[in-house]
Amino acid sequence: MDMPMTTHFADSSTGLVLALPKGRILKELAPFLARAGIIPASDFTDEDSRRLRFPTNDAALDVVRVRPFDVATFVAHGAAHVGVCGADVLMEYDTDQIYAPLDLGIGRCRVSVAEQVATAGREDWRAWSRIAVATKYPNIARRHFAARGIQAEVVHLNGAMELAPSLGLSRVIVDLVQTGSTLKANGLVETEVIAHVTSRLIVNRTALKTRPEEITAFVDRFRAAMEQSA
Ligand SMILES: Nc1ncnc2c1ncn2[C@@H]1O[C@H](COP(=O)(O)OP(=O)(O)OP(=O)(O)O)[C@@H](O)[C@H]1O
Ligand SMILES: O=P(O)(O)OC[C@H]1O[C@H](OP(=O)(O)OP(=O)(O)O)[C@H](O)[C@@H]1O
């Protein structure tokens, strides 16, 4: 993703900031945090709390709770030193400022192409030079179709992609699929898997260079918590 990359580190006398995604990953992540001995302030899991930054039982670690895509933005800019996000977000964000040392094995799903059951297999769009694609992953979609010599005309949506084909907004969608029930409920069928997705622990590369002991200790703490659950 093209963006000016500014790094905003507080000096190294301040603690680390861990960016976590609100929503479904956070629920799956909770046992890992507990096993890693990270206990955020009690209102962290309170959906009604308006607080966004939370101290933890470790005076050298604060947690911030942000939208899943924004975890990558906070970590890439160094506003957070470490974070957790889906591989889908990393593929879309596509920056060398983020290092992803640990696959947490949670948030398992795939990024796929889907189309209407009614049209699937009738006209082969694979021979077309352009195709309209509804997605919240414009970069992934463009790259995927470009590799097949097809120009993706992206309709950028933030949700409810499944409505797009039946309402004439696009021919196909690129979205996350886990059980397939959302596709099925909306008359769609998965036609190609672009990538398998799990959540990753991510690290800002500059922080890894400037604060190697702290960051390595943090990654090791997470790795140990994962091994305990294996
Ligand atoms: N059905 C699913 N099964 C498993 N993992 C999923 C599924 N949907 C999303 N994920 C993973 O969880 C991450 C966050 O998805 P989630 O649906 O919680 O947020 P979102 O709807 O993308 O966020 P926002 O509120 O910003 O729109 C995704 O980036 C992906 O890695
Ligand atoms: O294959 P399934 O098991 O049906 O899961 C896939 C659905 O999960 C995600 O949506 P989510 O539930 O996160 O809602 P969202 O539209 O708010 O992202 C994704 O965008 C799909 O719509």
UniProtKB/TrEMBL annotation:
Record-listed E.C. numbers: 2.4.2.17
Family annotation (PROSITE patterns): ATP_P_PHORIBOSYLTR
A Gene Ontology biological process term: L-histidine biosynthetic process
Any one GO molecular-function label of the UniProt entry: ATP binding
Keyword Cell membrane attached: no
Reaction it catalyzes: 1-(5-phospho-beta-D-ribosyl)-ATP + diphosphate = 5-phospho-alpha-D-ribose 1-diphosphate + ATP
Signal peptide coordinates: none
Key words of the record: Amino-acid biosynthesis, ATP-binding, Cytoplasm, Glycosyltransferase, Histidine biosynthesis, Nucleotide-binding, Transferase
Pfam family, one: HisG
GO cellular component: cytoplasm
Pathway where this protein functions: Amino-acid biosynthesis; L-histidine biosynthesis; L-histidine from 5-phospho-alpha-D-ribose 1-diphosphate: step 1/9
Record InterPro entries: ATP_PRibTrfase_cat (IPR013820), ATP_PRibTrfase_CS (IPR018198), ATP_PRibTrfase_HisG (IPR001348), ATP_PRibTrfase_HisG_short (IPR024893)
Subcellular localization: Cytoplasm
Residue ranges occupied by any ATP phosphoribosyltransferase catalytic domain in the UniProt entry: 67-223
Family, as annotated: Belongs to the ATP phosphoribosyltransferase family. Short subfamily.
Function per UniProt: Catalyzes the condensation of ATP and 5-phosphoribose 1-diphosphate to form N'-(5'-phosphoribosyl)-ATP (PR-ATP). Has a crucial role in the pathway because the rate of histidine biosynthesis seems to be controlled primarily by regulation of HisG enzymatic activity.
UniProt domain comment: Lacks the C-terminal regulatory region which is replaced by HisZ.
Record text on subunit structure and interactions: Heteromultimer composed of HisG and HisZ subunits.
Protein known as: ATP phosphoribosyltransferase
Source species: Roseococcus suduntuyensis
